[in-house]
Amino acid sequence: MIPLKDLNPSKRFPILNLILIFVNTLVFFYELSLGSRIVQFFYEFGFVPYKFSLYISGRSVSPYIIPIFTSMFLHGGWAHIIGNMLYLYVFGDNVEDTLGKMGYLLLYFLSGIVAVFAQYVISPLSKIPMIGASGAISGVLGAYLVFFPRARIISLVPDPFTFGLFFRIAPISAFYYLFIWFLLQLMQGVATLPFAGKIGGTAFWAHIGGFVFGVIYAIIYRSFKTYRHK
């Protein structure tokens, strides 16, 4: 399923969400200019679990903190950046509208941090750089599920009458869409556990960790807001 838009107009202009999309895109175009240097760039600014393990074990004197944040703005190709920014564009504006700019920014970065360490726990000795905004965006999806479960997501879905050979556009409830999305991440995460840290690919546990954190963050925010209004 590919989300195209939601039938859930935001009340305010989502300036912060658009800035995040712009920054991610700008960094990606910079990556394109690097040519063969891109691999070294990923190893320097992506999050390499093995390097962090060396740092926390005391075997490396160099702090390894900055890549936790810079890795969130790196992408490995056109499909990677377009897919992530599409999800952020469709789901991010309403979450920003609900949380406000500071609350949304906090959600984004905290989700990204949790996502990094969710994947790190699975493969702490991996020497493959972790890159991408998908962990942070997964947190946005989790918050969207809590705030707008009944919203309709206009999506491109496989047509069952053609056994998935063709696609059609259909409205899907946010609850159903995001539940299926999370279930797929969980299934693929479990299926790839034997290969964790040994080969490249999608960091499914980063998605899972970010999403779960986003759900918890939104529930706490909503509960706190309800308490303040009593």
From TrEMBL:
Pfam families: Rhomboid (PF01694). GO terms for biological process: proteolysis. One of its GO terms (molecular function) is serine-type endopeptidase activity. The chain crosses the membrane at residues 12-29, 64-90, 102-122, 128-148, 160-184, 204-224. It comes from the Bacteria. Coiled coil: none annotated. InterPro entries: Peptidase_S54_rhomboid_dom, Rhomboid-like_sf, Rhomboid_protease_S54. It is found in: Membrane. SUPFAM superfamilies: Rhomboid-like. GO terms for cellular component: membrane. Belongs to the peptidase S54 family. PANTHER family: PRESENILIN-ASSOCIATED RHOMBOID-LIKE PROTEIN, MITOCHONDRIAL, RHOMBOID PROTEASE. This is Rhomboid family intramembrane serine protease. It comes from candidate division WOR-3 bacterium.
